[in-house]
Amino acid sequence: MAALEVEGLARHYGEREALRDVSLSLAEGQTLVVFGPNGAGKTTLLRVLATLLRPHAGRVSVLGSSLPDEAWAVRGRVGLLGHEPLLYRELTAQENLRFHARLHRVGEERVAQLLDAVAMGGRAREPLRTLSRGMVQRVAVARAVLHEPELLLLDEPHSNLDPAAVELVAPLIGRSSRRTRVICSHDPAGMLAEADLVLGLRAGRPALVAAAAEVDPEEIAELYR
Amino acid sequence: MYGKSLRALSISTVVAMALALSLVFFYAPLEAEQGFLQKIFYVHVPLSIVALCGFVIGALLAIQHLRTRDPRWDMRSYVAIHMSLIFAVGALITGSIWAKGSWGHWWVWNEPTLVSFLIVFLLYATYQPLRFAIEDPERQARYASVFAITAGAFVPLNFIAVRLSTAYVHPRVLGSTSNLPAPMALTFVVSLLAMALLYATLCKYELTAKHTRAQVRALRRRLLGDAEEARGGRARSAAPSLPPSATIGPRTSPRTAL
Amino acid sequence: MRSTVAALLRKELLVELRTLESVPGMSLFAVTTFVVFHFALNRSTVEGDLGAGILWVTLLFAAILGINRLFVADAEEGGFDGFLLAPVERTAMLVAKALTLLAYLVVLELVAIPAFALLLLGPPLGHALPGLIGVLALGDLGVAVIGTLVAALAVRTRARDLLGPLLGLPLFVPIVIGGARATSPLLTGAHNAAPAARWLLTLGLYDLVFGLIAYALFDFLLED
Questions:
Q1: C157-184 confidence digits (pLDDT tens)
Q2: What's the domain count of chain A?
Q3: Which residue has the higher pLDDT, B55 or C160?
Q4: Residue ranges making up the domain that contains A136
Q5: Contact between residue C71 and residue C97 where contact means Cβ atoms under 8 Å apart
Q6: Interchain proximity C85–A53, CB inside 8 Å
Q7: Which phi and psi angles does B135 have, rounded to 5°?
Q8: ipTM for the whole complex
């Protein structure tokens, strides 16, 4: 069963088309990397897959459930790491993660486990506004994987992370047979290696859909011109 | 072509208004107490009734929008409320004139209908600022629909509450519409009909204009493509927009009613 | 649903205790407003209709301060997204936020009523207190529900601090009508003062209707 089946997905923003005619199929455990200039629709696509936005046309099936009608079945099995950390600045890392744990019906031991995994154990009891952006991003990663999602949606996951931190979060958001990933990226050099499938978006339309092995980095650079 | 019924509607509105006006001035008897001034009743009360019904219709259309997510319902809801607001202003002004003529004051607090209207007007006056303050068109439509439904439910409740709070020390200034002698009742009904037709026609005009403009924009976008996008597209607006699929395309039949 | 509401409530109260940005402001505003009223009316004591009016207007405007801040933290930081991604009933947020606002109002009144009795109210409040509490409870429920709905409508718009009150005040008018009319006989110092049943009924009915409406419509406001 495909983890993701998208056919003719369209979404408009008023009279403008944000996404049009996007079609792809992604198997379980595989990674899709989405490239494209700003405003191309990468974030919109991610949010549609996360059930935060409704598709306006086309068929979308995530983890076997079709959107938007069966969106409720998908929530809780998807993890999103976007531009915003989705954390409350006045609360501590521990309080934030515990809050999300309660919402997702996850036990508190998992919170402690993840805080250690992102090396935030020592500063888990300080309000987030006192932490650096890199640390906040690490806590955000923890939030995204707290409920062990089958589908991970990552919007430029390595932003604000230094190389040591990137290594730290790799086991959490890296390639694994248990999770399917969709990654939006501006870094063709780095991310191409991670991809099984590549989607290039330009002005909401798919300019390029191909298996990673068949993609020439030059084609990706072409998107940005 | 959208708007085929416009001509029929306009003609019947003109006929109805002409009939109503002639009845008001030549047929309806002069009322004993208030004399000629009382004839404003034939304008004020129909304006009020049509405005109130318009607000409720706006709420019903908004419910349809939330159920189907079709932006055309939002367009209809917007026009209904927008037009009702104008009629409500008319009702307030005519009510005020009537109050000045009968009581000597431009505003009276012990006429519950007038007071309720003021509150309803103040509420619906925030409808367009609310829409204008939301940039994402889909969210704008959705929030506006939630507002329209809330406000629509508020209208009757508000009337009840204000009615309860108004002390019946003085007899009601503007009189009631029951117990009217036959000639007055006939004139009233015709006036009401004329006002309702006027409302429907004006709404239809506005819907047609918006639809046409949206079609033009969609055609331009199709022809000019990226050049149009680069010009910045459409400015921020409180009015609802129609998505590309709703205006032109092979699927859209010319007779699709708006 | 209950556990979700509990989790949300916990988060709300934690944030409020940490930042103290709503309740102290609301309470201080109420007390200051009473002082302003003294100077504006040039009176040392008020009672009956006038007293009821001043009390309700002040409470309402203080409530608006709280309403303006109700969803700000979610809109700016935590983001509704975090909540929307969770496998929970979305109406739980309406319930949690309304309960939070209700809690704020109760604390506000714990400060404002004694302040009112001290600074402006002429007749003693003693015997009328149970009646007053009943009226306030019904009024608070309505303000909490409508306030939450209006706050959710206004928070992700450009003029949020302005639109909230503009949308809310007309919707609050029936609550003011019912509340002030019911409170007025309680502020006359009469020993057997009791609020008239019709006003309590009006308040209760209004609360119920808007509670149902808010419950039905709230989910639509949370989507992106």
A1: 888 889 999 999 999 999 999 999 999 9
A2: 1
A3: B55
A4: 88-148
A5: yes
A6: no
A7: -85, -40
A8: 0.90
